Amino acid sequence: MKEVVKVELGARAYEVRIGTGLLAQAGAEIAPLLRRPRVAVVADETVANLHLETLRAGLGGIEMVTLRLPPGEGTKSWPQFTRTVEWLLEQKVERKDIVVAFGGGVIGDLVGFAAAVLRRGVRFVQIPTSLLAQVDSSVGGKTGINAPQGKNLIGAFHQPSLVLADIDLLGTLTERDFLAGYGEVAKYGLLGDADFFDWLEVNGPALAAGDVAARLHAVKRSVEMKAEIVARDETEEGDRALLNLGHTFCHALEAATGYGNRLLHGEGVAIGCALAFELSQHLGLCSQEAPSRVRAHLRNMKMKVDLSDIEGELPDADGLIDLMAQDKKVQDGKLRFILARGIGEAFVTSDVPRDVLHRILSEALAQR
Ligand code: GLY
């Protein structure tokens, strides 16, 4: 089973191949890109323990050198970045070689950034292993690391040459990690495809339970939507911001909870989407039915939906708004939100009165 989605970016166009058994045939998938039969693989340690031997076997006659990095957000840092770049140089990776990022979003972002600057840019292949990375971060060329001042503040746009999304790999994710990735899947339906959201309402539980055909369809449809938006607006001058539905709330919540285990990124996206629809309804943009459906679906999927689902203390509404003001999406000092006129009808605006935002957050916090 294999589906191919093309990211149409002219000379930098590439394919996202989605299917089962892709790791086992990685050699055949990657070989046409190679000038010599050798790849440098940078892998998440946990992923390497589970899947590196399958990748090695799949590469067949292609020689593989490997660097294992520790799992977790802390890896997206200068020390691990320096280590990666220097290791690639020690391995004598040349301008025409291919670097492979083998892991979730952390590895994809870090390795993509290393590839962007190594010898002023080498090509790289993403083999995303988490649902979040398969449907979002491996596609579109955003790469980078975190700074003490905030997440993803150091980086570059550098498109991969190929993305291999093997959905068999999703079978080894914890339920929590899988559902966090599902937050991004639901986001695509909510931002631009009401039919897909209808489909998720029916098929989401089977998908979470392991239905391969449903997983394939959900990853493919998500990637199609991302590819189409990225092709229209690669560097986020306009429409690409739609992909940030739920993210202004999410980034404030992640900052408030320390970017750790209390709240995973995809969990924050799901809660953020629910809040964005709540805000849209309070602003008279959509009917009450829309936020109710969003929340009901997330609940049905056994996901975090409300601020009360986050354990421990949170700042008050003013504190959360202050954290939002540090978001990358702030423009001319104004917060930018992705709001919706209904399910599948999102748009970007800076026009959100502070008092309405304050009320939404205060009400959500009061339910804790
Ligand atoms: N994850 C949002 C984007 O790629 O633009």
Give a description of the structure.
This protein has 368 residues and is α/β, with parallel strands linked by helices. It folds into 2 domains: 2-172, Rossmann fold (3-Layer(aba) Sandwich); 185-366, Dehydroquinate synthase-like, alpha domain. It is 46% helix and 18% strand. The chain has 13 helices and 11 strands. The strands form 3 sheets. The chain has a 7-stranded mixed β-sheet with strand order 1-2-9-6-5-3-4, with helices on both faces. A two-stranded antiparallel ribbon has the order 7-8. 49% of the residues are buried. The mean pLDDT is 96. Residues 136, 140, 142, 240, 243 line the site of glycine.
Largest sheet: 7 strands, mixed
Unreliable stretches (pLDDT < 50, length at least 5) are none
Averaged pLDDT: 96
Indicate the overall shape: globular
CATH class call of the largest domain = Mainly Alpha
Question: Which H/E pattern describes the elements?
Answer: EEHEHEHEHEHEEEHHHHHHHEEH
Task: Give the helix tally.
Answer: 13
The domain tally reads 2
For the terminal residues, how far apart are their CA atoms? 45 Å
Give the structural class. Answer: alpha/beta
| Secondary structure tally: strands | 11
Q: Strand order of the main beta sheet, please?
A: 1-2-9-6-5-3-4
What is the CATH topology of the largest domain?
A: Dehydroquinate synthase-like, alpha domain
Rg, please? 20 Å
CATH superfamily heading of the largest domain: Dehydroquinate synthase-like - alpha domain
Q: In the CATH hierarchy, what is the architecture of the largest domain at level 2?
A: Up-down Bundle
Helix content: 40-55%
* Bound molecule kinds, no repeats: glycine
Strand content: 15-25%
